[in-house]
């Protein structure tokens, strides 16, 4: 199970290496005699590297409009410009686009021509971070695998906008203006292969509804969440990395076994209002509890298995897998209690 999870995460994290291999393969198949023709097709505002004939670099050029995109382009870089609109005209011939980076522009929802994005049938990666969007743009290309919309002004998610994005593995909405009311029970419906959901730095007071069941990474840092509902994580049985740093969680807001979830390997609860360590699962490997209000730690109480039973079975039993424990910024005085070390025999680092 854990090996499968890590394999999926490696696929997600190393898309850049896949991209490099893909471009290199295209380059190897290219006839050098045709380079001059490719150069003549290159928009004068942009750079077309001969070694990567399917990439077009128009970033940091002060552009206010998107130039005509040649048909051969797969990878389009338009970040750090002054672009305000997305119209169909520049993309008429660009039927092979896989990747568009439009980060750090001035694009608004009203500046996106109706249907222009959904017509990019082969698009896999769409980056629209740091623009002026107030809602998730729609409709979107059905083949998308990554959608990055961080650092906009998004407060609205249109109904059904994600319903056909079955291939989407990453959705980044962090640092926007989302309220609880923007996340309905069917908001994420259709995202059957989503692995990473980032809704950090918004204005949520509650845990979001109906997270896709296959989600591995859930990032909810820097919100105002106070309560974890009972059995919340039973609906996302594969969640492995959970970040809830900088929220308003207290002991009363966490059910007795709220975080006693076997799938969670990395749990981050830093900068909350906890006075004690919540029950954890023996499979947990990393636990961040720094900058809470914890005054003492009792290893016997927090140990996910009986210490006596652990002595009987030794390393052949189900001993806790915790390797990293962070407790600094609390009211705990060293030294580390001996029963912590007896319980968590695999600990490699404790910050106190």
UniProtKB/TrEMBL annotation:
The residues the entry assigns to the signal sequence are 1-20
Gene Ontology annotations for the cellular component aspect, listed alphabetically: extracellular space
Highest taxon listed in the record's lineage: Eukaryota
- Keyword tags: Disulfide bond, Extracellular matrix, Glycoprotein, Leucine-rich repeat, Proteoglycan, Repeat, Secreted, Signal
Show where the LRRNT domain sits: 41-75
Q: Where are the transmembrane segments?
A: none
Report the InterPro entries cross-referenced here: Leu-rich_rpt, Leu-rich_rpt_typical-subtyp, LRR_dom_sf, LRRNT, SLRP
Return the Gene3D superfamilies for the record.
Ribonuclease Inhibitor
Q: Does the keyword Repeat apply?
A: yes
Q: Where in the cell is it found?
A: Secreted, Extracellular space, Extracellular matrix
- Known role: Plays an important role in generating and maintaining a transparent matrix within the corneal stroma.
Membership in a protein family: Belongs to the small leucine-rich proteoglycan (SLRP) family. SLRP class II subfamily.
- Protein name, per record: Keratocan
